[in-house]
Input
Amino acid sequence: MNTASLRVVAAGPLVTFQDGGRLGHLRYGIPASGPMDRTAHAIANVVLGNPAGATTVEVSRAGASFECVGSSMTVAVVGGRLRTSVNGAAVGANIVVTLVPGDQLTIASGPSGSWAYLAVAGELVARRWLGNTATHSLSGLGGGHVTAGVDVGVSAARVAPLLDGPVAIFPGNVLSDGAVRIVLGPQDHRCTAEALQHFVTVPFALTEGFDRMGVRLDGPHLDLDAALSIPSEPIVRGSVQVAGDGVATVLLADHQTTGGYPKIATVVGADLDAFCQLRPGDLVRFVPVTPAEAILIARTRAAAFEKFLDNELLSARRLAQRLAETDLIGDVGTD
Amino acid sequence: MNRFAPVGDSALLIELASEFTEEANRQVVALDQAINSAIGEGRVVGILETVPAYVSVLIVFDPLVTDHDAVRAAIDLLDTTGAAVVEPSRHHVAVCYDLGVAPDLETVAATSGLSPDGVVEAHLSGSYRVVMYGFAPGYAYLSGVPDSINVPRKQQSVRGVPTGSVIIAGGQCLITTIEMPTGWSVIGRTHFRVLPEQSSAPFAFRPGDEIVFDRITLDEYKATP
Output
């Protein structure tokens, strides 16, 4: 049996292995990590017939380039609009493509988006920690950083050229006019009323201080009430924390699990993936919803995404399978 | 009175007190255990994990199964006053306080008006309790640092502080688990590992556990792997 791999020709910073996430260890100081855009990650896997939470390579805007080694394989690149090319020829963003040994796949910063997911029909081989390959970028624990010169093993590589072509994009994974829905709290009472009013009315810009741990925002200075030193309290993915300097940070996949600064709001899960795909300089508006509305948003979103995966992706796979069977019969007929 | 605060679409924070006290944190540990017993016995549904902190417990739930109000109602029904609290374990941690691996010992001594040995004796005399894990993987915050060596954080973080460093600041103590920048004072080094290096190994401490530091020489530190 051929040993298949993707040889890393080049990789910028923050290119890491990610699976569905290391859930359930917050109490030990360990965030779930996992993909910055969980929607794109799941689509990249499902379109190839992999489990939604299978291991992918998360490619940052800094880009990465891979050479197909050992045997042919079908891969998907999904997320943002990062520019994908094979042997120098552009193949578009959000694409399934079949590589033959020697092919070079390059993912580079495109017109928009910050993260793309490289999935392989088969299984990417990556180190596990506490049961998951998701990389905690600060420590490198988990699958780890993907760096130039490394051969990323692919086990049970499959070739499915009938899947080649553009991948449907989930219409629910976009922000409407930069609106990011939040639930206020749990420590919004630590902000002055004026600061809170600014927070929900004035646009904020993402800054260059943007990595897997979080993104600092540029906007009005948010004044905190006198009692600055609150006992460290738990943080979740999407927490909006305001530090002593009045600057807000949205905490993301590799967030610290506790913090002593007030967390004045939390971004709803349905808007977080699209938020992560923004770039420094992009503007957002924070729109408060009630906790009950947030629950409804989460349920509506989950149902819509499930339907999308079933209708758009699985039906495409079934069609591909049917075509394959027809071809097979055709082949027999011409013998 | 506990304060319940919604956290986004999938969590609820219960604040038991506004300031840290050992008693408030003991209540946190008891509540956390009561919730997890209830989960284990199937008395509550939809709760994915809980995070005990200094004076609060975060409950993370699946919004497709339950919601903030239902979780709060389930917690209100729990009787935590008589909850059987898991007996805390006591762990011994061997620490080398040699100046070669304790770069801030002399500064802490100068700040505290003690000799370096005086700082070590004070550190050894503390009665330490794990109040929570937080910040970074395996960072177990220990309360119980004696007031005589209660030093503030440094103005600037120092990079490249190695794994196994014993660090103190503001009445708290930590054993570092990964190489990280820190503004805390490094007063010793240990081979003890809080964080499992093997996927299957358990974490060394549970919130509520007691820690005893034992002094070893540099030769003893070097002799152990």
Q: What stands out?
A: Chain B has two domains: 3-77, 90-223. Residues 194 and 204 of chain B are 5 Å apart (CA to CA). Helices of chain B lie at 22-40, 68-77, 105-112, 116-125, 218-223. Chain B has five helices and 13 strands.
